[in-house]
Amino acid sequence: MTDGERQSGSLITGIIADDLTGGVLVASSLVEQGILCPIVTRPSALDFLGDSLACVVAGRFRLAPPEEAVQWFDETQRALTERAACHIIYKYCATFDSTDCGNIGPCADALMQSTGADRLGFCTAFPSRGVTVYQGHIFLGSELLCNSDKRFDPVTPMPDSDLVAVLGRQTRREVMLVPRSVLADGVEATRCFIDAAVDRGAAYFLFDAIDDADIAVCAEVTETWPAMTGGDSLLAALPARHIKDRKSVPIIPPLPPGATAVIAGSCAGATLRQLERFADSYPVRQVVLADAAEDFDSAVADAMAWAGQQLPKGPVALSVAQGPEDVKRIQARLGVTEAKMLGERVCRAMACGLQALGVSRFIVAGGETSGAVADAIRLDAMHVYPLRDIPGGLCLGDAESGLCCYFKAGKMGSETILLDLVEIMGQGADDD
Length: 432
What we know:
This protein has helices spanning 20-32, 66-82, 104-115, 163-168, 180-183, 187-199, 212-222, 232-242, 269-279, 289-294, 296-310, 324-334, 336-356, 367-376, 417-427, and strands at 13-17, 39-40, 54-58, 87-91, 120-123, 131-134, 137-140, 143-144, 175-178, 204-207, 227-230, 259-264, 284-286, 316-319, 359-365, 381-387, 390-396, 404-408. It is built from 15 helices and 18 strands. The termini are far apart. It has 2 domains: 13-242, Putative sugar-binding, N-terminal domain (Rossmann fold); 259-427, Four-carbon acid sugar kinase, nucleotide binding domain (Molybdenum Cofactor Biosythetic Enzyme, Chain A), CATH 3.40.980. Keywords: ATP-binding, Carbohydrate metabolism, Kinase, Nucleotide-binding, Transferase. Residues 261-418 form the Four-carbon acid sugar kinase nucleotide binding domain.
């Protein structure tokens, strides 16, 4: 379907993201290219789209049990198909965050079955951020991902950098590498390589990519496929091949009145360092998860009482982020899943409490935390406004919501990003 053939109210490209922060990065990239791309967090909010040619439906299924993830994925894919989306793209983290149980493989299986495709590609590389794939192995900078801190991720550790093997443990379908030597021969050679492999029974194709030229070949090879999967770089390139109608990049409108607060749920080293820098200028309160496990209501109430005293003076930060040793201790005590759920529960409660205290501008650190906070403050549909020199963009709901948010992946951003965002939100204030 071309732009000219498209009927009002229908989509060209529907993107299903496994978390909110990843969805924001994709939408921001497309908006920067002149492609209007709203974000919703549930299929029932798709009426927010208007005449958009692309949209992101950002879920919270990266860490969900596979059965729940597949159910949500199927419902979302059906809703997008009902809107006449002729290209469905599944977006996951560039570092292929998953476990041997899923959820990349199970969701890919669901996507392939629902679209009736005979092939599905996986292009996770993000060269501009140092994430590359060569001979099927994923690198972060110059080292294998399994030799980086990602090996010790508390919920999605990556001890194996061989993505063909990693994906193979999540699906019964045959996974084949599309090596860079094939990509270097060009688009037609790559298409012939894949066609021949499909004839031999292969279904899933893991693409090498070490630079943007490789990403471009991958996007051109797969542009007519009904479904595709990948990370940020592919998601910036592929929809642009589907959608030719471009708009001017929107200007950030006046922000809703209210106070500004940071909620940090990520335990990534980057987030911990960002909080340290923020604390040089603004007050920070940590809610210790061990205390919340003992008396949840008191831990949250104490944090809200503190915030109520501090907010009249300016922005504040509330955090459940902990260092690696503290994370290990709370996981050993509660279990990995239970510790994660407790952290999200605290962040949800703090978000609701801050909203009641007059906070309308939220800066949220952590992918799972972002989804939990958006759900708590009932922000389920938003437009993204790209920011200069800061990844992603400001997310604004409709006028009725009165909310402005910045959702940040835990490991993303400079050490001053929280301070920079507070300044941006202050400059965009409409408090008169």
